[in-house]
Amino acid sequence: QVQLVESGGGxxxxxxxxxxxxxxSRRPYGMGWFRQAPGKERExxxxxxxxxxxxxxxxxxxxxxxxxxxxxxNTGYLQMTNLKSEDTAVYYCAVSQGWELVAVTSSYQYWxxxxxxxxxx
Length: 121
Fold this sequence. Notes:
By secondary structure, this protein is mostly beta strands. It has strands at residues 4-7, 10-13, 18-24, 30-36, 43-49, 54-57, 65-70, 75-80, 89-96, 110-111, 115-120. The chain is 0% helix and 50% strand. Strands 2, 4, 5, 6, 9, 10 and 11 form a 7-stranded mixed sheet that branches. The protein has a 4-stranded antiparallel sheet with strand order 1-3-8-7, with no helix packed on it. Strand 4 and strand 5 form a beta hairpin.
């Protein structure tokens, strides 16, 4: 069993920044970030392939969010800048033991508890 602990959510004004962290108990193949707003489906935000640190981004994240990881700490990060009200959601990290499709929830076996991000306009 793999445990994930998320932190870093909160309330921020539009245009501001937040960094989410996700500590994982075992080195994964990759880590993904998803978000879910009320009444909407869970949406892919970003992911990072752990060995080489190669990032992948959903359309909503391109140019504003950065996925990274600290291999020594087994921790992944999602740096979010220029936040908008439409970024308000619960953000989840998840880890994969191997993926063919990085942006689908079924590629991830373990999930964090979620952290609320609220962007006020």
